[in-house]
Design goal:
Two copies of one chain form a homodimer. Chain A is an alpha/beta fold. Chain A folds into two domains: 194 residues, Rossmann fold, CATH 3.40.50.450; 171 residues, Rossmann fold. Chain A has 15 helices and 14 strands. The longest helix of chain A is centred in the middle third of the chain and has 21 residues. The first copy, chain A, is elongated and about 90 Å long. The N and C termini of chain A lie far apart (98 Å).
């Protein structure tokens, strides 16, 4: 004994593969033989402040494997962002248990939590190594080529749009799906993976990175519907006007905010229903609007194998980085090194905290509301099984009656 | 030459496996060697009336196989219900092409179309054999133990609820999901397959077969939330008040109706959002509401293998029944013969047309809003891969600080 303990926790929105990161980190921490125990904090930093731990040091391998393939955050999550007092309470608890390493799996808000905790620990002279392990279905962490959780959510969205496209082809009309994505359009762009031959498809895509213009939106739908006799539309929940305010917040003044001050964009159908009303007033067509909601981030039946493997591997790498001499704090990032290969690099917490990554300009053509080939090439390797749809192109039967009537 | 031709078409809402029925029927029709050609009517009976056919007699096997595993209705669908004049126009076209057999894949409205077409053909002395092939995600066709399309949609719903349940466990609150089901609660009941240990789970289920009582609904949520610290709710889109009017139609006077006079319940988030508002006014908790929408019936990534096989087999059986001497019209039905085995029986169009099947009384406990073991046993064999979720039950770490403060 005398190594000190490690605490691991999960923050922010769950994903389909976040438990692969949890168990990947636990296996690697235990393999190191350099901690006295691994504790899991229940519901993230809240569990630390409340001294709510479970001991994971002797959890059977089989249970950890089964936890890995369960969606959601097995330890529970939180959206708490600690301030100085919160940190002081956490440090009282962590010191009492002789905790010297803290691993936190989450997105950019959780990376920011790590940054705050690490700074506060340093300022009070507490030797705590703080490691952030990336995850977010939004795919908007800086430095990273992509993030664990995105591949599985993108797989869900691509299969959902593939199905909705075939459904819409069966009973033509206008279909609109609202996809998660507060600041970044990556997940919404995955809709294009489900609608094959994307240039010639009736799919229009609207993402938060480009100001949403209602008139252009309606004109593009009208044009597409006239051309194809149907129209598919993918919209990010976070689309915003030229002034930066989310369209949903413009339409509904009373929407909730989370503790980080973010608008609560998911968990209702208001954006989809409002856009559907706008469309109905402009185009004479059957309009159906779905909001993909929470299903897309934790659907238990569409996990991408690539995503699951990387979620485990990046957590393992993060634990290895945290063993480096002089390591104080940092985050593990996924870097693409080939088509398709990745490596994991250590980066600073500051480099991934708070700010978000946007879709590369070459991924989206704003003028036509189309996702580009470049995005498809980027995203395809992250999904193990792309949807495949075949269109029945039979031989048209010559018309006997109409011919007759034209004679 | 001289056998006459067969026409096949698809009606009503698409499913994930309706093309397995299409291709299963085509293979069997062609194998019989007793038709001159198989034509597909584009967009159901509408394609017949408009003389819009494609010749499927020489479609490559590989293409048919790929069509089978594509969701949606490959031939296009329609919600048209023919009357006498419509039938007369259809018969002009069918006679011009020497069509003597008509196969229609659809639900109870399509079965009713078959009934009308067959009656009209008989009354005008046109020798047309009319065969209905069952499909509906609603699982509400009479005579049938279950219907093709249900297993895959139930698989989607069970995996969606499994994921949503893990998500809700991570960040506790109240989650409500609105599931398809105008008259029958089968698909909504499949939510219980995703929430393991259903008696002890925080899942409440509301289906159209039992009058929806808002006060009881809110009381049950309040009680569940108090007990579990969270609550999961599955609601059929078709839930109705004691007078039989859908709750959605009570809340919104202007909702659309389809050509059959049915309320358009899917394609918006209104029911989920209204119920969420009601809950928010009663229980102080985070409330999130999703509407599963069109995704659940045609999701390209969660097809049940059992469902796909049966969709093919029941269509094959239907074609075989239609070769029986004296056959005029009929439908093929799926009958369960063991745990788990099925056989296919010929039944009359009248027995499956229009009326709908309800959940068996032993499948649902209205007083507790719980799905019973009996339903789970009924539904499990129809889904090839049930969601599996493992709960992390670690050893709680004794509290050092709180202990101290209690001393």
């Amino acid at each position: 004994m005398g190594f000190g303990k490690a605490v691991i926790a999960q923050g922010g929105g769950p994903t389909a593969v976040i438990n692969h990161s949890l168990t990947g980190a636990i296996f690697e921490i235990l393999r190191g033989g350099d901690v006295d125990a691994v504790y899991g904090a229940v519901h993230g930093v809240e569990g630390i402040a409340n001294e709510n731990f479970i001991d994971l040091s002797h959890t059977p391998t089989d249970m950890l494997n089964r936890i890995a393939s369960t969606t959601g955050s097995a330890l529970g999550s939180t959206r708490d962002k600690p301030d100085e007092n919160y940190c002081a309470q956490m440090f009282d608890v962590l010191r009492a248990h002789d905790v010297r390493k803290f691993y936190y799996i989450g997105g950019n808000d959780s990376a920011d939590t790590c940054r705050i905790v690490s700074q506060q620990a340093e300022s009070v002279g507490y030797d705590l190594k703080v490691t952030h392990i990336p995850k977010t279905v939004d795919n908007d962490l800086l430095v990273n080529d992509h993030t664990p959780g995105f591949g599985s959510a993108a797989k869900f969205v691509s299969h959902a749009f593939a199905g909705a496209d075939m459904d819409n082809r069966s009973l033509p009309g206008i279909y609109l799906g609202v996809v998660m994505g507060r600041d970044a359009g990556f997940l919404t762009a995955a809709s294009a993976l489900g609608c094959s031959n994307h240039r010639e498809s009736p799919l229009l895509v609207y993402i938060p990175e480009f100001a949403f213009d209602t008139d252009r939106f309606l004109a593009q739908i009208e044009e597409t519907y006239a051309r194809f006799g149907r129209c598919m539309i993918a919209v990010s929940e976070g689309i915003r006007g030229a002034d930066g305010t989310p369209i949903l917040a413009q339409l509904y003044k009373d929407i909730d905010r989370d503790p980080h001050g973010n608008y609560q964009l998911s968990g209702n159908g208001q954006l989809a229903d409002s856009l559907a009303s706008l469309i109905k007033n402009t185009v004479k067509a059957k309009v159906r609007a779905d909001t993909f909601g929470y299903i897309q981030r934790s659907f238990a039946g569409a996990v991408s194998a690539v995503d699951a493997h990387e979620a485990c591997a990046v957590a393992e790498a993060a634990v290895q980085f945290s063993r480096q001499k002089e390591f104080r704090s940092g985050s593990a990032a996924i870097i693409r090194t080939g088509e398709y290969s990745v490596e994991y690099q250590l980066t600073t917490l500051e480099s991934v905290a708070r700010s978000t990554k946007s879709m590369a300009p070459e991924f989206y053509d704003c003028a036509s509301a189309k996702i580009t080939e470049s995005f498809l090439n980027y995203a395809k390797p992250l999904i193990d099984t792309l949807p495949h749809c075949t269109i029945l192109n039979g031989e048209p039967v010559p018309q006997l009656l109409r011919k007759k009537s034209y004679l």
